[in-house]
TrEMBL record:
Keywords: DNA-binding, Transcription, Transcription regulation. It comes from Actinoplanes teichomyceticus. Pfam families: LacI (PF00356), Peripla_BP_3 (PF13377). InterPro entries: HTH_LacI, LacI/GalR-like_sensor, Lambda_DNA-bd_dom_sf, Peripla_BP_I. It comes from the Bacteria. This is LacI family transcriptional regulator. PANTHER family: HTH-TYPE TRANSCRIPTIONAL REGULATOR GALS, LACI-RELATED TRANSCRIPTIONAL REPRESSOR. PROSITE patterns: HTH_LACI_2 (PS50932). One of its GO terms (molecular function) is DNA-binding transcription factor activity. Transmembrane segments: none annotated. Residues 7-61 form the HTH lacI-type domain.
Amino acid sequence: MTTRERPTLEAVARRAGVSRATVSRVVNGSTTVAATIREAVTRAVDELGYVPNQAARSLVTQRTDSIALILPETANRVFSDDLFFPAIIRGVGTELEAADKQLVLMMTGSEAGHHRVERYAVAGHVDGVMFASIHGADPLPGALARRGIPVVCSGRPMNAGTPVPYVDVDHAGGVAAAVRHLIATGRQRIATIAGPQDMVAGIERLAGYTGTLREAGRPEIVVAGDFTRESGIEGMRALLAREPSLDAVFVASDLMAHGALLALREAGRRVPDDVAVIGFDDFEISRYSDPPLTTVRQPIAEMGRTLARQMLRLVGGGTELPEPVVLPTELIVRDSA
């Protein structure tokens, strides 16, 4: 049995009755070809089952039609029960699929990972790079942008000199609404389990907590977490040991809040009778926690879609950087507070 030969550009040209160059222009999206000729070429492509050689096409168009989404975390963190990454990937993927672009996922949870991503992007394997989250003053977004590679970040880069657009949410405003809710419902000693302070999300959520309590003349009771359930358990245990009279806690992520609920149950504290709990994210599982979790909703999938739209503007030939986008948050009140 012989293998059917792959149709060539020349075969399409013969079938359509045009030159090879004309077929190439049509296949690569040129708008300078007459409509009747484009229809003849398209019909020949369909009849022969011609599939463009992507490598050759990239040489002509200087495009790969692939966009990288960088997750600056280890594989263990990305594929844990943290639901932030699946939600933002879903948003990015939906938008890129509609634009007929290929999504390339890469992780940079180590120095070697940073170097690998930089080499891959600089070599021209993708048309642009998006970052799903950034730790510290990560130099990689700025380094890629200075090499002429389109870059967009989810979350404001901590390095203020990095010339890249970003998409973020109103962290501080959302937390302020949560703390004011706790004050309005009569809570007196309001603690927090803060997020990591090498990320803008962690920094701004803590700032929203401290700023609101200072305005109200209330004491600040702070322990640190890292957005994981385990750090929520440990953080809540530490708070109870330090401040046994606390009657409310704002927790900087839903996963940490679920850990806090477990620690409170372990300590025999009733929620919300003894201690009110508010999280941040509004993951679907928060509706089914015991009790259902009051939380600050951030539109993660919309962040992903907006991130992709900004990238598509950049790779589509836009000469100006898109303006930063800050999406609103919303307090969702359930039984835990």
